[in-house]
Known about the structure:
The protein contains nine helices and eight strands. With about 230 residues, the chain is an alpha/beta fold.
Amino acid sequence: MANVLLGVTGSVAAMRTPVLFEALQNAGHSVKVVATSAATYFFDAAALRRQSLMPVGFSDQPECLRSLLFVDDDEWPGRADGEHYRRGDPVLHIELRKWADLLLIAPLDANTLAKLAVGLCDNCLTCIWRAWDSSRPVVLAPAMNTLMWQNPLTKRHLRSLAADAGAGHIPGHLADEALIQQINERSPTLRIVGPMIKTLACGDTGIGAMAEVTDIVAAVQTLLALLKAA
Ligand SMILES: Cc1cc2nc3c(=O)[nH]c(=O)nc-3n(C[C@H](O)[C@H](O)[C@H](O)COP(=O)(O)O)c2cc1C
């Protein structure tokens, strides 16, 4: 059992967040969700929040972590009411990073992928990424329109993430599948669960749909088992 932090970004595939959340819980993990502002358009965040009212297992956690779902406003408690940060107040993205044994971002949209690759950190999720302990595992499940996926920027960003995650230099000429395979074989801590071919929500048919929930959970399980055995 691990503490799995599920990052959710603004892809249509975020509609599957409740299913993915449940599948991770069924696999025995303690799960918390960090959603970007765009992501909350695609699933019922209030329903997950309602589950947070059940305090099971929360008693040993710092007060700021006693929820299942976090959005950007949670980083700035009281700001809307004119309150200010006081020395000693917890910093949510750091507390979440300390809590998490594994970071899963599913779906990972093109915008957040680009931010991860260059280190921009303008929301809770990207701050967690930027503050991440590089010895801890990360699983990414990209989802985007076919032409977004095929844009050379996608490959450039994935190669950059892979280099930072210890995969060394990945040649730029590789086709998508070979690229993902090399990243997954060479990085000790990073796994990419590649997108599928499907008729996408926008009506286009092609590569770009988020992988099946079962495949994403399997990648989490395999990586955790590998690191445990090491
Ligand atoms: C209906 C709709 C569906 C979208 N689906 C995707 C998608 O599947 N993948 C993607 O990369 N961007 C998608 N976008 C664009 C992102 O939501 C947009 O880039 C947003 O700024 C992402 O913000 P975030 O990365 O902070 O979540 C979609 C936008 C809309 C309005």
